[in-house]
Design goal:
With about 140 residues, this protein is α+β, with helices and mostly antiparallel strands. It has a domain of about 90 residues. About 40% of the residues lie in helices and about 15% in strands. Helix 1 runs antiparallel to helix 2. It starts with a helix and ends with a strand.
Length: about 140
């Protein structure tokens, strides 16, 4: 059993995630897994619809018990936002980029293309995020 699958099963056993969430996470792990036995066909990879960020922490700083964050963002919203950047006038883009850079976000919106977002989405299947706190687990994935 691989390490990621074991972690998912541990989170399920500890009650940090539901059986449904565990099933989705395991399915995401098995998609396009290299070295599948011959004759076993992997399901056709469908276009993801959501970006999920799940955070489970055993303790909170306020002492109110475990913290659980589960955010689901429609990828269509992100795709539409990327397309809308082409409608921003060049003068406004310059000002926006300056403010973003000033805030520590060095992104040039004039260079943002829909393909960049699709490349990011494609790579999210392989994202692992390590937390400094051993009692905190975080996953970022597309579904």
């Amino acid at each position: 059993m691989n390490e990621q699958r074991r972690q998912i099963l541990e989170m399920l056993a500890e009650g940090k995630i539901t059986a449904d969430e565990a099933e989705r996470l395991i399915d995401a792990l098995e998609r396009d897994r290299p070295g599948s036995p011959p004759g076993v066909t992997s399901p056709t990879k469908s276009r993801p619809k959501y970006l999920r960020v799940v955070l489970n922490s055993a303790e909170t700083s306020g002492g109110d018990g475990p913290t659980r964050i589960n955010v689901r963002i429609p990828l269509q919203l992100l795709r539409a936002g990327v397309r809308l950047t082409s409608l921003i006038p060049p003068q406004a883009l310059t000002k926006i980029n300056q403010q973003l850079d000033k805030s520590g976000v060095p992104i040039d919106l004039a260079e943002l293309r829909p393909q960049h977002l699709e490349d990011l989405i494609e790579q999210l299947d392989e994202v692992n995020i390590d937390m400094d706190d051993p009692d905190t687990k975080m996953q970022v994935f597309c579904e």
